[in-house]
Amino acid sequence: MPKLKNDTFLRALLREPVDYTPVWLMRQAGRYLPEYNQTRARAGDFLSLCKNPDLATEVTMQPLARFPVDAAILFSDILTIPDAMGLGLYFAEGEGPKFERPLREEWEIRALTAPDPVEHLGYVVDAVRQIRHALDNSVPLIGFSGSPFTLACYMIEGQGGTDFATVKKMLYQRPDLLHHILATNARAVTDYLNAQIEAGAQAVMIFDTWGGALSHAAYREFSLRYMTEIVSGLTREHEGAKVPVILFTKGGGNWLEAMTATGCDALGLDWTVDIGSARARVGDKVALQGNLDPAILLSEPDIVRTEVGKVLASYGRGNGHVFNLGHGISQFTPPENAAALVQAVHELSRPYHIG
Ligand code: CP3
Prior knowledge:
Layout: H1 8-13, H2 34-43, H3 46-50, H4 53-66, E1 72-73, H5 80-87, E2 89-91, E3 97-99, H6 106-110, H7 117-120, H8 122-135, E4 141-146, H9 148-157, H10 165-173, H11 175-199, E5 203-208, H12 216-233, E6 237-238, E7 241-242, E8 245-249, H13 256-260, E9 266-268, H14 275-282, E10 287-292, H15 301-315, E11 321-325, H16 335-348
Parallel strand pairs: 1-4, 4-5, 5-8, 8-9, 9-10, 10-11
Antiparallel strand pairs: 2-3, 6-7
Helix pairs in contact: 2-4, 4-8, 9-11, 10-11, 11-12, 14-15, 15-16
Bound molecules: coproporphyrinogen III.
């Protein structure tokens, strides 16, 4: 395998020395970029874009042409797995994701099986291969998946933006059914991420977007437990290189020590956490990724630069920081503010890595 020209991101995840703090942005390919909207219009809709490896490669590369980010992330969605399970994913214009056939009846839940990623999610595996080719070893490629619990939220509720009443009712009334869904999802996610790694993903991230909606005890039993299973089942070394695993529970700031115990390499932090305090809590066990409030990117370049400086100062000197937003970039972000962020991280972080 030829060497990566820029492996700063992978080294930071493994807590190795770097010259500057690497940066990428959650949802860095997306609607805030006019070129994304053009490609999406050519595809017809978002899902057709995800399912077309040529176009998925094109939009993955778009933010890299604009900003010197230190990683690319596969352009896809976490809901490809439930779609491959037969639930019928669709995106109504102007609304979030929805399923035609959400899980309602016990027999539907019992019939659920983990899809074979090569057979049923071949378009994702193909996109990973094509993106690696397009990247030409410039920066590493991140693969990703949703967490079993976050996927279950959409599979049971049938859409996002709910108060999770249906999934939580099942959690307390029929935990056996929810565990069946979660165990199936954990198998599916493990196979899916391993297929992405096999195809060339050089790091993987698990998005537990809704784990933070759970109680302290339920988080451990219904989300963390299954992410731990996944971390143990992942291919952690591929073609002679380590494949770091990043775990991100939005709203999980209270549970960082428990998340660290999964055996992952890094934790993603949302913006509600002070990254310096988080570092003191997890010690040298994991790297940290985050955690600028994405709303700051709605302001202006000078303010972005000041706020970037605060996050870098809070983390402090030394290794193990990957700069990112605390959640996905807003579609209303002016691209020049994203450019200011990347530049500020690269410039302002150097003093923290000297000596
Ligand atoms: O980071 C990247 O650039 C990679 C692409 C990516 C997308 N979705 C593209 C996308 C990633 C990593 C995701 C993950 C994802 N998808 C999550 C977990 C991360 C998070 O945000 O918490 C979740 C919960 C989903 C499910 C999903 N997909 C929702 C709730 C929505 C609608 C949200 C919105 O902004 O409208 C999507 C659609 C989606 N996924 C878009 C993009 C670029 C916008 C779709 C469009 O072009 O219309």
